[in-house]
Write a structure and sequence with these properties.
This protein is an alpha+beta fold. It contains 6 helices and 17 strands.
Length: about 325
């Protein structure tokens, strides 16, 4: 099955090839376990500077604290009146109260147990962590956890200019490790089989070869389904700028330059000792079409639809990642 030419046209929707799900060409030969494993190994070897994605920028606010456990470290985040994001230990240094259940007043965290107010300057026994807000996501640097040479800022992928883009962030969590999430994204061959409601006629056209490929990316041609047999064909690349991030970027077709960033943040382990990982996915969409300017003005209505689409995909993909972890942890993974 051949995908229509993804070159931009006046009307982006096109009628996609019709084929029964079971009549697709099998992709298991092309989706070589060795190719996926090699790409994953190269990704995991890249430096992160000990930075972890904490949350969407919109989740860290000046009127209330935000709490999350990252790599077993309890964190709390908030903003000062100038809009700057901050993060620190999630337990109050007085008696250990959960600061995420406290309040923010005049740019300071206020503990609800005894009223201790904590600020960005710190307190004996309580020191804030380095934070980076890139406008879409808030990152936190955990040097003791990461154990790498620290970087002043995280490795943020190239994105469309914010003044001509719509961004939306969705978060989910699963019983797996970050590498299982990254491996899922480095297997584009599963797209049309595992997500037939979203993709059609997916074909991988470029795969990295050798121990140090340049560029280190996978390129696919795929049709994004919109309704029925109508969809939008594009070419997209997948690459890993750091060990817990996979970026899909449209390199030809509608939405040129748009990206979907999949960030895998380790949370810790559950009561049974099973690791949990958050998938924090940022979609930054852009288009030169006149109608996109209207979509940007209506972005508050567009974002829920983008997030819902991401949730649907990741319900399936987390099952993939969780299954991979289960097989790895019991010595049964064939790859």
């Amino acid at each position: 099955m051949t995908l229509p030419d993804p070159a931009p046209r006046r009307f982006p929707l096109r009628r996609m090839p019709a084929a029964a799900w079971s009549a697709q060409a099998p992709t298991w030969r092309e989706g070589s376990p060795a190719v996926i494993a090699a790409a994953l190994k190269r990704a995991l070897a890249r430096p992160s500077g000990n930075w972890y994605v904490l949350a969407a920028s919109t989740e860290v606010r000046a009127d209330r604290p935000f709490g999350r456990v990252v790599a077993g470290v309890e964190l709390v985040a908030w903003r000062t009146p100038d809009g700057t994001a901050h993060a620190g230990p999630g337990a109050c240094p007085h008696l250990g109260a959960p600061l995420c259940r406290g309040a923010v007043a005049e740019g300071r965290l206020v503990c609800r147990w005894h009223g201790l107010a904590l600020g960005a300057e710190g307190f004996p026994g309580w020191s804030p962590y380095p934070v980076h807000d890139d406008g879409v996501l808030v990152w936190v640097r955990l040097d003791r956890v990461g154990g790498e040479e620290s970087l002043d800022a995280p490795v943020v992928p190239e994105r469309p200019p914010p003044d001509r883009a719509i961004s939306a962030v969705e978060s989910m969590a699963g019983r797996c490790e970050p590498e299982d999430v990254v491996a899922n994204r480095l297997d584009p061959w599963h797209g049309s089989w595992f997500h037939p409601y979203s993709f059609v006629a997916l074909r991988v056209t470029e795969v990295p070869r050798g121990p140090d490929p340049d560029p280190d990316r996978m390129v696919v041609e795929v049709g994004f389904k919109v309704a029925g047999r109508w969809g939008v064909p594009v070419r997209a690349e997948f690459h890993c700028p750091e060990p817990r991030t996979v970026v899909m970027r449209i390199i030809e077709g509608e939405g040129l330059g748009s990206v979907v960033e999949t960030h895998a943040t380790p949370l810790g382990t559950d009561a049974r000792g099973v690791p949990r990982t958050a998938v924090i996915e940022a979609t930054i969409a852009a288009s030169d079409r006149p109608g996109f300017a209207l979509a940007r003005r209506l972005s508050a209505a567009v974002r829920p639809a983008v997030r819902a689409a991401a949730r649907r995909l990741w319900r399936d993909d987390l099952a993939y990642a969780e299954r991979r972890y289960l097989l790895r942890s019991t010595g049964r993974f064939p790859g």
